[in-house]
Design a protein that fits this description.
The chain is elongated, with a radius of gyration of 26 Å. It is of the alpha/beta class. The chain is built from 21 helices and 21 strands. Strands 15-14-3-7-5-19-20 form a seven-stranded antiparallel sheet.
Length: 543
């Protein structure tokens, strides 16, 4: 492995062995801020090597060490190795891609319905369910994401004086309703599948129970957070599968994402799904996601010639990665070889080269051959340029050589599936089960639970009071408006997703386009009978 050879050059043979044996953890050490400020380059390199040795020696220890709690209880995650510039490492909280938003991030009809519910004395206990309508083209599975944002929003949901003043100005609401909103606190219960869980369209993923007005008012934010982040995490998981267990993948999407909130959410969702880092510095600062950077074509073009740019960049960075396709990729590779040998003479090393255009498979093979010929096989090859799971799979099938991939636009907008049809529907109230019967939009009645058979990797949707073989997926996360389950740190969640992804049955890991994939989801006999009683002739026993 190129990464292993690179670490051996730094005096880390034990580290190289650790990486071979534990390829998915993506864990190395970070450099102290004082080292980053030092003026002595040799001192910097020594410190980097020392910290890398310290970090990768931890890979064989337990998850609680790889994602070690700090004194304040926050979880830490280390930066990925190799071509990645050493990252600032902040607290890795399971929580949010974004801060709590204003209470008015609702659709107007939620407020008009809420006002009417109160007027009609219809604020009884009700249960709503979030699920994704099947089928989702090109997706054999989904990765559930966005739950921390939902919890933080619901826990902090308050209506300010300014917001109430705006609502008053609409002329739609009486003072009694505005007074209700002024004192609003969510007092209901939430059950959900685990953040990062492998899930399927048709199966309930979140259940909200409480006073009807309360569970109605959270609909828009809940759908916004879960639909988008689950969409991106599911796309990212497919990219991770395409890159393989030894491939490292980084989010480069921020400049093409559809809004600044989306850029941070994409960084988090992709890291959760197994990416090794992001170019988004805000995501690094806010959530401890390792930040990654190489160089842009504009840097190379700012110098009289390419090799001058390479030398300048290498002089200013302890582990440089050079972008070699600004003019001609093979000439760029030759210039990178010159700089790599100059660095070696100084006791330093070139971390990698990046290719961003052209026939990536063909040119990466040529670059790899040149590096091998020149005795520089430790220099890693990183490719980017409109990549996604399909293009990475094609690149590898064509014999492309890469240690890492930068994935941008096609990740950030989920190019092949740009929206997720997640819905939030009433399934029960004090009058009993409720069921939508609209053609093509039928819902399941009754408060649900989902049971997973790990032996056959099949889910069964049942009623909440049923007990079936397997394990229940929906767990309490809020009770009476307060947390009843604390989630692990983001690094630990990511490791769990990686283990689950590469343990999926082969048919679920298939990346070939499929307009109507089948899902391993069935209904229990009792739920099937209830559905047929509420809406005779609905369908078979599947979702």
């Amino acid at each position: 492995m190129v990464l292993a050879r690179t670490l051996q050059d730094l005096g880390g043979g034990a580290m190289a062995r650790a990486v071979r044996q534990c390829p998915y953890n993506g864990s190395t050490g970070s450099r102290d801020a004082q080292v980053l400020r030092t003026q002595k380059l040799q001192h910097v390199v020594g410190q980097v090597a020392s910290v890398l040795r310290h970090g990768l020696n931890k890979v064989h220890e337990t998850d609680s060490t790889v994602n070690a709690p700090s004194q304040d209880g926050a979880t830490r995650v280390r930066s990925p190795p190799g071509w990645v510039m050493p990252a600032h490492v902040a607290d890795t909280r399971a929580g949010g891609a974004r801060p709590v938003r204003d209470a008015l991030l609702v659709d107007l009809y939620e407020l008009t319905m809420a006002s009417s519910y109160l007027r009609q004395d219809l604020n009884d206990q009700a249960t709503f369910v979030y699920f994704v309508r099947p089928p989702v083209p090109n997706r054999h599975f989904l990765v559930f994401a966005g739950l921390p944002d939902v919890l933080r929003y619901i826990e902090g949901l308050r209506f300010t004086d300014d917001e109430l003043s705006y609502l008053r100005g609409l002329g739609l609401f009486d003072e009694q309703f505005l007074a209700y909103l002024r004192e609003f606190r969510f007092s209901g219960d939430l059950w959900a599948v685990d953040e990062g869980a492998i899930v399927f369209p048709g199966a309930p993923l979140l259940v909200a129970s409480g006073p009807r007005v309360e569970v109605q008012l959270v609909e828009t934010f809940l759908l916004n957070a879960l639909n988008f982040q689950t969409l991106i995490a599911s796309k990212a998981a497919r990219v991770v599968l395409a890159a393989g267990p030894d491939g490292r993948v980084v989010d480069f999407s921020a400049r093409r994402d559809q809004g600044t909130d989306a850029a941070v959410a994409v960084a988090r969702a992709s890291f959760l799904a197994g990416f090794h880092g992001s170019s988004n510095v805000l995501a690094g600062q806010r959530m401890g996601i390792p930040v990654v950077g190489t160089m842009a074509h504009s840097y190379v073009m700012s110098y009289p010639d390419e090799i001058s740019a390479f030398r300048a960049f290498a002089a200013d960075h302890p582990r440089p990665v050079l972008l070699i396709d600004t003019y001609d990729t093979l000439e760029g590779a030759a210039n990178a070889v010159v700089v790599a040998k100059e660095l070696r003479a100084q006791g330093r090393s070139l971390a990698g080269v990046r290719l961003d255009s052209g026939d990536l498979a063909m040119e990466s093979r040529a670059v790899a051959a040149l590096l091998e010929k020149e005795g520089l096989s430790e220099v890693e090859i990183f490719v980017s340029g409109d990549l996604d799971e399909y293009r990475i799979a094609a690149f590898r099938a064509a014999g492309g050589v890469a240690d890492g991939y930068g994935v941008g636009t096609r990740l950030g907008v989920s190019w092949d599936v740009p929206a997720l049809g997640g819905v939030y529907k009433l399934v029960e109230d004090t009058s009993g089960p409720r069921m939508k019967r609209s053609p093509g939009k039928v819902t399941l009645p009754g408060r649900p639970q989902v049971w997973r058979s790990d032996e056959h990797f099949e889910d069964t949707v049942a009623l909440a009071d049923e007990t079936l073989p397997g394990r229940p997926l929906l767990r309490c996360v809020l009770r009476g408006g307060r947390r009843c389950l604390e989630m692990p740190g983001l690094g630990e969640l990511r490791n769990a997703v990686l283990r689950a992804l590469f343990a999926l049955p082969e048919d679920l890991r298939d990346l070939a386009p499929n307009a109507d994939p089948a899902y391993p989801v069935r209904l229990s006999k009792r739920l099937t009978a209830l559905r047929d009683r509420e809406a005779p002739g609905t369908a078979s026993d599947g979702v």
